[in-house]
Write a structure and sequence with these properties.
Blueprint: H1 5-11, H2 18-31, E1 40-41, H3 43-50, H4 54-66, E2 70-73, E3 77-80, H5 85-105, H6 111-126, E4 129-130, E5 145-146
Antiparallel strand pairs: 1-3, 2-3, 4-5
Protein backbone atom coordinates (compact mmCIF):
# COMPACT_ATOMS: atom_id res chain seq x y z
CA UNK A 1 0.00 0.00 0.00
CA UNK A 2 1.48 3.31 -1.05
CA UNK A 3 1.28 6.22 1.36
CA UNK A 4 -0.19 9.44 -0.03
CA UNK A 5 2.30 12.16 0.85
CA UNK A 6 -0.46 14.79 0.72
CA UNK A 7 -2.36 12.98 3.47
CA UNK A 8 0.80 12.70 5.55
CA UNK A 9 1.50 16.44 5.23
CA UNK A 10 -2.08 17.18 6.31
CA UNK A 11 -1.39 15.23 9.55
CA UNK A 12 1.70 17.33 10.28
CA UNK A 13 -0.28 20.11 11.94
CA UNK A 14 -1.13 17.72 14.78
CA UNK A 15 2.51 16.94 15.50
CA UNK A 16 4.38 19.10 18.00
CA UNK A 17 7.93 18.23 16.92
CA UNK A 18 8.50 18.55 13.19
CA UNK A 19 11.82 16.68 13.25
CA UNK A 20 10.24 13.66 14.93
CA UNK A 21 7.34 13.84 12.47
CA UNK A 22 9.71 13.88 9.46
CA UNK A 23 11.69 10.94 10.87
CA UNK A 24 8.45 9.03 11.46
CA UNK A 25 7.21 9.67 7.92
CA UNK A 26 10.52 8.54 6.42
CA UNK A 27 10.64 5.50 8.71
CA UNK A 28 7.10 4.49 7.62
CA UNK A 29 7.90 5.01 3.93
CA UNK A 30 11.04 2.90 4.26
CA UNK A 31 9.15 0.16 6.15
CA UNK A 32 6.42 0.18 3.49
CA UNK A 33 9.02 -0.36 0.77
CA UNK A 34 8.44 2.98 -0.91
CA UNK A 35 12.10 3.82 -0.30
CA UNK A 36 13.97 0.55 -0.85
CA UNK A 37 17.42 -0.24 0.60
CA UNK A 38 20.19 1.66 -1.12
CA UNK A 39 17.95 4.53 -2.27
CA UNK A 40 19.65 7.92 -2.09
CA UNK A 41 17.54 10.41 -0.13
CA UNK A 42 17.65 13.81 -1.78
CA UNK A 43 17.56 16.60 0.80
CA UNK A 44 16.21 19.10 -1.67
CA UNK A 45 13.40 16.90 -3.01
CA UNK A 46 12.32 15.56 0.37
CA UNK A 47 12.39 18.98 2.04
CA UNK A 48 10.24 20.42 -0.75
CA UNK A 49 7.77 17.52 -0.84
CA UNK A 50 7.36 17.46 2.96
CA UNK A 51 7.34 21.26 3.20
CA UNK A 52 10.10 21.40 5.84
CA UNK A 53 13.49 23.06 5.97
CA UNK A 54 16.60 21.17 4.94
CA UNK A 55 17.94 21.64 8.47
CA UNK A 56 14.88 19.88 9.91
CA UNK A 57 15.39 17.09 7.39
CA UNK A 58 19.06 16.77 8.37
CA UNK A 59 18.03 16.44 12.03
CA UNK A 60 15.59 13.68 11.05
CA UNK A 61 18.39 11.97 9.10
CA UNK A 62 20.51 12.08 12.26
CA UNK A 63 17.73 10.38 14.25
CA UNK A 64 17.28 7.72 11.58
CA UNK A 65 21.02 7.21 11.32
CA UNK A 66 21.21 6.49 15.06
CA UNK A 67 18.49 3.87 14.53
CA UNK A 68 20.44 2.39 11.56
CA UNK A 69 17.48 3.10 9.26
CA UNK A 70 19.64 5.27 6.99
CA UNK A 71 23.37 5.44 6.37
CA UNK A 72 25.35 8.64 5.86
CA UNK A 73 28.33 8.69 3.57
CA UNK A 74 30.46 11.86 3.76
CA UNK A 75 30.40 13.84 0.52
CA UNK A 76 27.96 11.33 -1.02
CA UNK A 77 24.70 11.77 0.89
CA UNK A 78 22.18 9.81 2.89
CA UNK A 79 20.96 6.40 1.75
CA UNK A 80 18.32 3.96 2.99
CA UNK A 81 20.25 1.34 4.94
CA UNK A 82 20.79 -2.00 3.29
CA UNK A 83 21.25 -4.66 5.97
CA UNK A 84 24.17 -7.02 5.48
CA UNK A 85 24.07 -10.76 6.13
CA UNK A 86 25.09 -10.33 9.78
CA UNK A 87 22.23 -7.86 10.41
CA UNK A 88 19.70 -10.17 8.78
CA UNK A 89 20.96 -13.10 10.90
CA UNK A 90 20.57 -10.94 14.02
CA UNK A 91 17.00 -10.02 13.07
CA UNK A 92 16.08 -13.67 12.65
CA UNK A 93 17.87 -14.60 15.89
CA UNK A 94 15.71 -12.12 17.79
CA UNK A 95 12.57 -13.23 15.97
CA UNK A 96 13.37 -16.84 16.87
CA UNK A 97 13.21 -15.82 20.53
CA UNK A 98 10.19 -13.50 20.40
CA UNK A 99 7.76 -15.20 18.05
CA UNK A 100 7.45 -18.54 19.92
CA UNK A 101 6.77 -16.60 23.12
CA UNK A 102 4.03 -14.62 21.36
CA UNK A 103 2.45 -17.85 20.09
CA UNK A 104 2.52 -19.33 23.60
CA UNK A 105 0.55 -16.36 24.91
CA UNK A 106 -2.13 -17.26 22.40
CA UNK A 107 -5.63 -16.10 23.31
CA UNK A 108 -4.42 -14.64 26.62
CA UNK A 109 -2.41 -11.98 24.81
CA UNK A 110 -3.83 -8.52 25.54
CA UNK A 111 -2.99 -6.84 22.23
CA UNK A 112 -4.42 -3.47 23.28
CA UNK A 113 -2.25 -3.44 26.42
CA UNK A 114 0.80 -4.49 24.41
CA UNK A 115 0.11 -1.70 21.89
CA UNK A 116 -0.14 0.78 24.77
CA UNK A 117 3.21 -0.37 26.20
CA UNK A 118 4.89 -0.08 22.78
CA UNK A 119 3.35 3.37 22.20
CA UNK A 120 4.54 4.50 25.64
CA UNK A 121 8.05 3.24 24.97
CA UNK A 122 8.19 4.98 21.58
CA UNK A 123 6.91 8.20 23.13
CA UNK A 124 9.54 8.00 25.86
CA UNK A 125 12.25 7.34 23.27
CA UNK A 126 11.08 10.27 21.15
CA UNK A 127 11.15 12.57 24.18
CA UNK A 128 14.65 11.37 25.15
CA UNK A 129 13.35 9.58 28.21
CA UNK A 130 14.43 6.14 29.37
CA UNK A 131 14.93 4.15 32.50
CA UNK A 132 17.69 1.92 33.65
CA UNK A 133 16.22 -1.56 33.63
CA UNK A 134 16.48 -3.37 36.97
CA UNK A 135 17.71 -6.95 37.24
CA UNK A 136 15.03 -9.38 36.01
CA UNK A 137 14.49 -10.73 39.55
CA UNK A 138 12.48 -7.73 40.71
CA UNK A 139 9.78 -5.63 39.09
CA UNK A 140 10.52 -2.09 37.99
CA UNK A 141 9.38 0.74 40.22
CA UNK A 142 11.54 3.42 38.65
CA UNK A 143 9.80 6.24 36.79
CA UNK A 144 10.86 7.37 33.35
CA UNK A 145 13.63 9.96 33.62
CA UNK A 146 15.79 11.96 31.20
CA UNK A 147 18.58 9.95 29.67
CA UNK A 148 22.05 10.83 30.94
CA UNK A 149 23.33 10.23 27.42
CA UNK A 150 21.31 10.27 24.23
CA UNK A 151 23.07 7.13 23.02
CA UNK A 152 21.48 5.07 25.78
CA UNK A 153 18.01 5.75 24.38
CA UNK A 154 18.74 4.63 20.86
CA UNK A 155 19.44 1.00 21.65
Amino acid sequence: MLVNLGDIIADRADHANTTVWVADVLRRRIAAGELPPGTKLSEQQLAASMQVSRNTLREAFTMLSLESVVTRFPNRGVFVAAPDAAAVREIYRVRRMLEPAAVLWGPDLDVERLDAVVAGARDARDRGMCRKWPPPTRPSTRPWSPCPAASSCSS
